[in-house]
Automatic annotation (TrEMBL):
It comes from Caloramator mitchellensis. Keywords: Membrane, Transmembrane, Transmembrane helix. The chain crosses the membrane at residues 6-29. NCBIfam families: IV_pilin_GFxxxE. The keyword Lipoprotein does not apply. This is Prepilin-type N-terminal cleavage/methylation domain-containing protein. The keyword Transmembrane applies. It comes from the Bacteria.
Length: 164
């Protein structure tokens, strides 16, 4: 009697390994996409908090802004102080949407977010220049709409930011 494995046994083991690798790869890609979106949401929320704190400390609500520039396949989000970029991040493979809790707002090539002295959120672009009590930024993965994060900015208490 010969010792060893038959060709059929080796093929079955390789098929099982292939299936396991495929499953883990799919989960890895999904977790990687979710992680990148989580990181971007945390960065944007930190930027919003920083803009509010700087504006409030200096009592000048016009010079600190968040600028969101939409490119063909990315967004560039920057903190602006008197026209100078203080900090910037790039968001790729995502769709960014704005709303006031009820109505979706138009997303333009350049969008600005800052705060009013009463704590309200000011959103400006070519189509809008409005103050809001509540303002949401929704980030959705462009290849998987089930992966998304919402950044809620509220004026009560002023500068309140939460990620859901």
């Amino acid at each position: 009697m010969k010792k060893g494995f038959t060709l059929v046994e080796i093929i079955i083991v390789l098929a099982i390994l292939g299936i396991l690798i495929a499953i883990t790869n799919i989960n890895f890609v999904r977790l990687s996409q979710k992680s990148k979106l989580d990181s971007a949401a945390n960065d944007i929320a930190a930027m919003v908090k920083e803009v509010y704190e700087k504006s409030n400390n200096e009592m000048d609500y016009t010079k600190w802004k968040i600028e969101i520039k939409r490119g063909s396949s990315n967004y560039n989000i920057s903190i602006i102080n008197n026209g100078q970029v203080v900090r910037s991040i790039e968001l790729q493979n995502a769709i960014m949407e704005f709303n006031d809790g009820n109505v979706n707002l138009s997303v333009d090539t350049v969008n600005l977010i800052n705060f009013a002295s009463n704590g309200n959120i000011v959103f400006k672009n070519n189509a809008l220049n409005n103050e809001f009590i509540n303002f949401n930024i929704k980030l959705t993965n462009s290849s998987n709409s089930e992966i998304y994060k919402t950044i809620e900015i509220k004026s009560t208490p002023p500068g309140y930011v939460i990620i859901k």
